[in-house]
């Protein structure tokens, strides 16, 4: 992952002084949305409600070109505003009139409309562009993966700047129409429902629609040669999965895992409540990376996730994110525990259901396997810092925190919370503090100290506050000696594989 460290306030303030007195009521939007970890992420001054992307992609040359149309509303009087984007821009129109534009920073596109925008005014922004995503990088980092037969955009915390201009932060979610034309014989995979597929003069256009709010980093594009399978879940939800034609020895294990998507979604619906979207599925492109990502309604899996055989646990993790991360998104990236703690805990619940170790046994194992001086305990899942945003502790200690909560308030309240939270915050954003307040409300207990111990202290919680009882902790050890090596539950290898390779 790369880091963007421009301080937006300074830039905005200096430009404000340059505005002539006659236009003093109008100011530039901030070049960042105000994220504590990534100050340049997203932008200020407007909100996007819909993206329409109409693109053409050439697998042979990696040339991506097309038009992005953004439906926006100004949230302040705007003389100028930014989009986040890395490719070359040919033309920008705002409400049908040519707008001036310039690049600044690593991926800021500054747009000055011919007429300033009033607060509350809607503006249709059209950006025509072309470029090779693989040739754009920030500090040597690229989110775009080339494959032998195409390319893939799937990364966290950002990937959008490699293929479309946006307000690139989970706080500004929008609906999407993604339409991509590719040479016949090649497919374009994206989020949601495939609305149409039409061929003409050697090119096939795939038009996908996501009709519920979707964060920019959860919007994905994969072009390549895929085998596509379609089905419906027991609840009637359409499933679309796609597998690169050259997955080699991983092909069988990938299918044996991802083809269980419908079964897993139905099971998760019993835990988290109704599935929040109108489509589901996953795709496995022939990328060299090792991670998986919860791209909305269409999960991204690297083939390496299946190198040691099938892994339904990673499917459970990424589909759990559809509730925890996708429908209910972070307010800021420091709230990442709301995504990873819960997705990891869903794997513990799946393990329990499959008879491969209960959540308590997994909690006992994680607690025992990390001694007090292990740097594991210095990571605070409730505010890990950008450098540790995807550290193993955010996942494992994050799931431990949920077992501690479960033991404190009991199964009835705990599972009411797991199901109630996604309904309470559906399609919105939330912070860790919001969740703590919700858990206190549902349980009627004061939980601040418990969450402080498990999420915000840079040290191993004392045994007395551990979710494990002393007896069960030692039962999971091979012997009672001081140097006892805890025995991992059967499911542990698969669970650990999910996040040991998460992220870039
Ligand atoms: Zn995850």
Short description:
Helices cover 27% and strands 27% of the residues. It has 504 residues and is of the alpha+beta class. The chain has a domain at 330-500: Neutral Protease Domain 2 (Neutral Protease, domain 2, Orthogonal Bundle).
Structural shape: globular
**Class of the domain at 330-500, according to the CATH hierarchy?**
Mainly Alpha
- Bound ligands: zinc ion
* Average of pLDDT: 92
Structural class: alpha+beta
What portion of residues belong to β-strands? 25-35%
User: Which strand order does the major sheet show?
Assistant: 6-5-9-3-2-12-15-14
Distance, first to last CA = 5 Å
In the CATH hierarchy, the architecture of the domain at 330-500 is Orthogonal Bundle
CATH topology of the domain at 330-500: Neutral Protease, domain 2
CATH homologous superfamily grouping of the domain at 330-500 = Neutral Protease Domain 2
Main sheet record: 8 strands, mixed
Structural write-up:
The protein is an alpha+beta fold and 504 residues long. It has a domain at 330-500: Neutral Protease Domain 2 (Neutral Protease, domain 2), CATH 1.10.390. It has helices spanning 8-18, 251-258, 261-272, 312-320, 337-354, 359-369, 392-424, 432-443, 448-456, 470-475, 492-500, and strands at residues 27-28, 46-58, 63-74, 78-84, 88-94, 97-98, 100-104, 108-112, 122-131, 144-147, 150-153, 174-183, 187-189, 193-200, 203-214, 221-224, 226-232, 238-244, 282-284, 292-293, 299-301, 329-330, 429-430. An 8-stranded mixed β-sheet has the order 6-5-9-3-2-12-15-14, with no helix packed on it. Strands 17-18-19-21-20 form a 5-stranded mixed β-sheet, covered by helices on one side. β2 (46-58) and β3 form a beta hairpin. α5 crosses α7 (392-424), α6 runs antiparallel to α7 (392-424) and α7 crosses α8. Residues 308-454 form the Peptidase M1 membrane alanine aminopeptidase domain. It is an enzyme of class 3 (hydrolase).
């Amino acid at each position: 992952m790369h880091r963007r460290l421009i301080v937006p306030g300074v830039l905005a303030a200096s430009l404000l002084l340059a505005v002539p007195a006659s236009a003093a009521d109008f100011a530039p939007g901030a070049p960042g949305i105000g994220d504590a970890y990534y100050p340049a992420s997203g932008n200020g001054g407007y909100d996007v409600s819909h993206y329409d992307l109409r693109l053409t992609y050439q697998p042979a040359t990696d040339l991506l070109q097309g038009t992005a149309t953004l439906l926006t509303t100004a949230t302040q009087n705007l003389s100028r505003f930014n989009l986040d984007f890395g490719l070359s821009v040919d033309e920008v129109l705002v409400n049908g009139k040519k707008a001036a534009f310039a690049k600044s920073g690593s991926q800021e596109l500054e747009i000055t409309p011919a007429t300033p925008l009033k607060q509350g005014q809607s503006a249709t922004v059209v950006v025509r562009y072309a470029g090779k995503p693989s040739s754009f990088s920030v500090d040597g980092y690229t989110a775009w993966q080339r494959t032998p037969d195409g390319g893939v955009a799937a990364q966290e915390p950002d990937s959008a700047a490699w293929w479309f201009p946006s307000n690139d932060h989970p706080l500004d979610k929008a609906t999407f129409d993604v339409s991509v034309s590719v040479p016949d014989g090649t497919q374009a995979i994206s989020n949601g429902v495939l609305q149409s597929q039409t061929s003409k003069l050697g090119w096939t256009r795939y038009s996908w629609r996501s009709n519920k709010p979707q964060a920019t980093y959860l919007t994905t594009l994969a072009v390549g040669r895929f085998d596509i399978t379609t089905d419906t879940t027991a609840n009637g939800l359409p499933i679309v999965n796609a597998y690169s034609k050259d997955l080699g020895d991983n092909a069988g294990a990938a299918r044996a895992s991802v083809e269980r998507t419908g079964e897993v979604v139905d099971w998760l619906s019993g835990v988290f409540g109704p599935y929040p979207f109108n489509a589901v599925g996953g795709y496995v492109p022939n990328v060299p990376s090792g991670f998986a990502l919860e791209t909305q309604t269409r999960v991204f899996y690297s083939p390496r996730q299946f190198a040691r055989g099938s892994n339904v646990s990673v499917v459970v993790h990424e589909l759990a994110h559809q509730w925890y991360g996708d429908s209910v998104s972070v307010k800021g990236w420091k709230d990442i525990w709301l995504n990873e703690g819960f997705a990891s805990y869903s794997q513990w619940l799946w393990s329990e259901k499959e008879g491969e170790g209960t959540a308590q046994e997994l909690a006992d194992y994680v607690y025992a396997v990390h001694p007090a001086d292990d740097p594991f305990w210095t990571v605070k899942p409730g505010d890990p810092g950008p450098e540790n945003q995807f550290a193993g502790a955010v996942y494992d200690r994050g799931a431990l925190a949920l077992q501690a909560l479960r033991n404190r308030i009991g199964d009835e309240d705990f599972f009411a919370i797991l199901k109630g939270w996604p309904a309470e915050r559906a399609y919105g954003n939330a912070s860790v503090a919001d969740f703590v307040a919700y858990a206190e409300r549902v349980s009627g207990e004061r939980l601040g100290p418990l969450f402080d111990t498990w999420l915000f202290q840079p040290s191993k919680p004392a045994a007395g506050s551990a979710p494990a009882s002393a007896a069960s902790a030692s039962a999971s050890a091979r012997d009672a000696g001081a140097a006892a090596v805890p025995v991992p539950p059967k499911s542990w290898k698969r669970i650990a594989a999910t996040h040991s390779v998460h992220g870039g």
